[in-house]
């Protein structure tokens, strides 16, 4: 699939550069003053929510970090591990608590107060259950990302903390 995104970020983007779209790392194949295009392979369509995007869908965009930049949040690679479904959204003072259902294969890498990436947004796990996890969204996140308009039933891309996957792999009998 070829994805076309309109964005002012093209001022900082060149052909061949990486850019995350809803947390999925893609390569800009064409860039002009109005936006960019990227090719999306079948594996990415299978593991992410990108196949469900429609013309005009709001997406989160993030340029690749430069080695000289400060790291704000946790290490996010743009390698989506799977999808989750927003189950519940409830107000919590000035913030919102969002509960997201996820497969056990992803939940195994999550810990209370650990890191999770939801549609490319680095967040902290505020609660963890057997079939879901909860994050709290501050007003800044609600305003600057597509999570502010999300509703129950929305499919979101999930990237678990890569350190958890490495630890499992290095343990005796770990994942192959």
Brief overview:
This protein folds into two domains: 62 residues, Elongation Factor Tu (Ef-tu), domain 3 (Beta Barrel), CATH 2.40.30.20; 89 residues, Elongation Factor Tu (Ef-tu), domain 3. Helices cover 14% and strands 38% of the residues.
Question: What does it look like?
Answer:
It is a single chain. The chain has helices at residues 42-47, 104-107, 139-144, 162-170, and strands at residues 2-6, 18-21, 24-31, 35-39, 61-63, 82-92, 95-101, 115-118, 121-128, 132-137, 155-160. It is mostly beta strands and 176 residues long. It has 2 domains: 2-63, Beta Barrel (Elongation Factor Tu (Ef-tu), domain 3); 82-170, Elongation Factor Tu (Ef-tu), domain 3 (Beta Barrel), CATH 2.40.30. The strands form 2 sheets. Strands 6-7-10-9-8-11 form a 6-stranded antiparallel barrel. A hairpin with a 2-residue loop joins strand 2 (18-21) and strand 3. The longest helix has 9 residues, at 162-170. The protein is globular, with a radius of gyration of 16 Å. The model has no long low-confidence stretch (mean pLDDT 93).
Labels describing this entry:
globular; mainly beta; Elongation Factor Tu (Ef-tu), domain 3; 4 helices; single chain
Number of strands: 11
The name CATH uses for the topology of the largest domain is Elongation Factor Tu (Ef-tu), domain 3
The total count of helices amounts to 4
Strand sequence of the main sheet, in spatial order?
6-7-10-9-8-11
Q: Report the β-strand fraction as a percent range.
A: 35-45%
Note poorly predicted spans. Answer: none
Alpha-carbon distance between the two ends: 30 Å
Order of helices and strands: EEEEHEEEHEEEHEH
Mean pLDDT: 93
Q: Give the biggest beta sheet.
A: 6 strands, antiparallel, barrel
Structural class: mainly beta
Globular, elongated, flat, extended or rod-shaped: what is the shape?
A: globular
């Amino acid at each position: 699939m070829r994805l076309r995104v309109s964005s002012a970020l093209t001022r900082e983007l060149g052909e061949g550069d990486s850019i995350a779209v809803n947390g999925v790392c893609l390569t800009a194949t064409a860039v002009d003053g109005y936006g960019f295009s990227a090719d999306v392979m079948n594996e990415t369509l299978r593991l992410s929510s990108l196949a469900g995007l429609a013309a005009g869908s709001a997406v989160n965009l993030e340029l690749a970090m430069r080695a000289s930049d400060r790291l704000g949040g946790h290490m996010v690679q743009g390698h989506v591990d799977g999808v989750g479904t927003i189950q519940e959204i409830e107000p919590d003072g000035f913030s919102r608590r969002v509960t997201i259902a996820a497969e056990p294969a992803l939940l195994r890498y999550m810990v209370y107060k650990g890191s999770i990436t939801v549609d490319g947004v680095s967040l902290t796990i505020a609660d963890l259950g057997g079939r879901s996890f909860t994050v709290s969204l501050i007003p800044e996140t609600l305003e600057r990302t597509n999570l502010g308009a999300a509703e129950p039933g929305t499919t979101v891309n999930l990237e678990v903390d890569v350190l958890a996957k490495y630890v499992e792999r290095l343990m005796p009998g770990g994942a192959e």
